[in-house]
Amino acid sequence: MRGFLVDFSHIFSIPMNELKNQQPLLRLKSPWREQLLNRYIGYSLRIGTLDYAKAGINETIRAFFPELTTEQIDKRMK
Question: Phi and psi of 56, rounded to 5°?
Fold first, then answer.
């Protein structure tokens, strides 16, 4: 079995239009994508981390769950 390490201290984003013509390296299926998202949110909400803008958080969540709208995400974050 292979394992992967995700380092949340070096987060960067790539515009979706740059990724549309690329072949994915891997795809996370449920429940793994939810677990990764929960770990990311837990990491980003720790005391002492950067204060992320709401738009950046929405963009990250939409990368994992493209079926969600920003309104749905905002509603769940309240």
Answer: -65, -40
